[in-house]
Write a structure and sequence with these properties.
Structural class: alpha/beta
Order of helices and strands: HHHHHHHHHHEEEHEEHEHHHHEHEEEHHH
Shape: elongated
Strand order of the largest sheet: 6-7-8-3-9-10
Radius of gyration: 36 Å
Length: 608
């Protein structure tokens, strides 16, 4: 197994401090509460350290009257009880005051992470692993609460108590006492830090394997039907169990090394307490100290070293939390690929004319997708783009929404370059019916109203009626409140597509994009929907991406794409008469039947 190198460890320490500083803005909102909580913490520790002092004074009071009539030191006993009560009170006040700070910080960070994920580019989301990200974010946001909890409730109290104990020992006893205490604490910290840093390699690998296993389980459940189709349940279980087996090995090594750490910490504390008691006992025997001093020193050591024993665990948990937090802050540091310019203005939509001017685009430089695409969609015009899979048709829609920036040329709407307007205003002007409609795991009504959240119920119902889905919805047992399941899996492909059409209708955009908008519909429903789409698209600038050529015969102009280039364009009749690519595809689909959903690749003699 590879160990963490010294360079990596230094880099990790820098990241830890960087992440702690990055967390400070989330505390600033309640800085007053944070200061008040710290004040309560200090008062609680002052009261806590005062308890052994009073206890020693009580013992000395009894010692002074042992040859006389025993006198009960009532005032000291009352002070003892009051200090105990004060310590408990200020501890609880600290918890109450700081609770708002902790949970608000978690809320703010969680919201910021989700906002940032929405700002990241489509390229990132196409490559992400949902299950792994879900687990990483869960651990990362929880780590904020963990760190705040341990710092305020464990680390700072011990440091304050250590300072108070040191002050008492230096003031009242020989320097040897302070030397033993500080020496023990120093050795304890050095040992804990060294062993914990060594153990962090196990924790990092456990985190990675945990996220990997979670992603594998999540992926197999999302693809439940595919797993069942191929009977690969055992393969999925073996893959999941194999990852968990590696995780188990790391977990066992982590636990074993933790036992070594715990024993070493216990041994250091035992040696330190023993030395202190030896010095105190010798002082009593020599007459330099009283019995009350022996009790006081013993009580101080117990009071100091018990939380110090937990501090080792706290340090480990903080290191683990910092490792978890690092995943979140690294995500927040990832710069969105597509960003608004500093001087970007809202799109001034007038007529809705679209222009692709000599557009080039690639996902990787060695694999160009679009080559010198030049087209104009006049305001109110319906343009169809056809071609076989991989020709670059859907990429046009993604570039129009500015999910990616072009690598050459430019795209204009009403003369404005998409890169010079805000993304929000651009996307507000465009409605889309995608080929693959994914729904939220909520009610049908919620998914329908998503096109325009402020729409009234009659408007939503009207849009559903125009998309020929209202009768279906109202016929369900739960009607509009029917839950659609994760990703809309409880609905058929055609039902989901009609929901997407209704959303586009409800949005009322100036520009419409239909990306295989009827590919999942039967012929009868498709004919009804085609009429609806024609009504919706009237007086709208419309881009239709299609495989099934029968759905675009009424387009004002049809563009035929092949290998990222526009090979032909014209009306349906003109393209048939030209006997080129389009005519070949049309003939093939007619021979395959009216329900053919996707043309095959062009015949060699046509593609030349």
């Amino acid at each position: 197994m590879n160990r963490i190198s010294a360079t990596e460890r230094i880099h990790g320490d820098r990241r830890d401090w960087h992440n702690l500083r990055a967390m400070l803005p989330y505390l600033w909102e309640f800085r007053g509460r944070a200061v008040l909580a710290l004040a309560c913490l200090v008062l609680a520790k002052v009261a806590n350290v005062g308890v052994p002092l009073v206890l020693g004074a009580i013992v000395d009071a009894f010692e002074a009257t042992r040859t006389q009539v025993l006198v009960l030191p009532l005032s000291l006993l009352l002070a003892y009880g009051l200090l105990k009560l004060s310590a408990a009170l200020f501890n609880e006040l600290r918890d109450v005051v700081f609770a708002r700070v902790r949970y608000r910080a978690m809320r703010r960070l969680s919201t910021k992470v989700l906002d940032h994920l929405h700002r990241l580019s489509l390229r990132y989301h196409l490559g992400r692993q949902s299950g792994a990200i879900s687990r990483d974010l869960e651990r990362g946001t929880r780590s904020v609460s963990t760190i705040l909890n341990y710092v305020v409730f464990s680390v700072l109290p011990v440091l304050v108590e250590l300072a108070l104990v040191a002050l008492i020992l230096l003031k009242r006893y020989a320097p040897s006492f302070s030397l033993v205490v500080f020496g023990t604490v120093a050795v304890y910290f050095a040992f804990t830090f060294a062993i914990t840093e060594w153990r962090m390699d196990y924790r990092h690998r456990m985190n990675r394997l945990d996220s990997q296993a979670n992603n594998q389980a999540f992926d197999s459940l999302i693809n439940y039907e595919t797993v069942k189709y191929f009977g690969n349940e055992r393969m999925e279980l073996d893959r999941y169990d194999g990852t968990l087996s590696e995780w188990e090995e790391m977990a066992v090594k982590s636990q074993t090394s933790m036992s070594l750490l715990n024993f070493g910490q216990g041994a250091i504390i035992a040696i330190g307490v023993t030395l202190i008691m030896v010095f105190a006992a010798r002082g009593v025997v020599a007459g330099d100290m009283r019995i009350g001093d022996l009790v006081l020193v013993n009580a101080l050591m117990i009071q100091l070293f018990i939380p110090l024993g937990f501090l080792g665990i706290v340090y480990r948990q903080i290191k683990y939390a910092l490792a978890d937090m690092d995943l979140v802050f690294k995500l927040l540091e990832r710069r969105p690929e597509i960003r608004d310019r500093a001087d970007a203005k809202p799109l001034r939509l007038r007529e809705g004319e679209i222009r692709f001017e000599h557009v080039d685009f690639h996902y990787q430089p060695e694999r160009p997708i679009l080559r010198d695409v030049d087209l104009r969609i006049a305001a109110g015009q319906k343009i169809a783009v056809v071609g076989h899979s991989g020709a670059g048709k859907s990429t046009l829609a993604r570039l129009l929404f500015r999910f990616y920036d072009v690598t050459g040329g430019r795209i204009l709407i009403d003369g404005e370059d998409l890169r010079e307007v805000t993304q929000e205003s651009l996307r507000a002007a465009i409605g889309i019916v995608p080929q693959d409609t994914v729904l939220f795991n909520d009610s049908i009504y919620y998914n329908l109203a998503y096109g325009r959240p402020g729409a009234t119920r009659p408007e939503v119902e009207r849009a559903a009626e125009m998309a020929h889905i209202r009768g279906f919805v109202e016929g369900l047992p739960d009607g509009w409140e029917t839950m659609v399941g994760e990703r809309g899996l409880k609905l058929s492909g055609g039902e989901k597509q009609r929901v997407a059409i209704a959303r586009a209708i409800l949005k009322q955009p100036r520009i419409l994009v239909f990306d295989e908008a009827t590919s999942s519909l039967d012929s009868h429903t498709e004919q009804a929907i085609q009429q609806t789409l024609a009504e919706v698209a009237e007086n709208h600038t419309t881009l239709v991406i299609a495989h099934r050529l029968s759905t675009v015969v009424d387009a004002d102009r049809i563009l035929v794409m092949d290998q990222g280039r526009i090979r032909e364009q014209g009306t349906h009749r003109a393209l048939l008469e030209a006997r080129g690519h389009y005519a070949a595809m049309w003939d093939l689909q007619q021979r395959e039947g009216p329900d053919a959903s996707e043309p095959v690749a062009m015949a060699p003699e046509v593609a030349r």
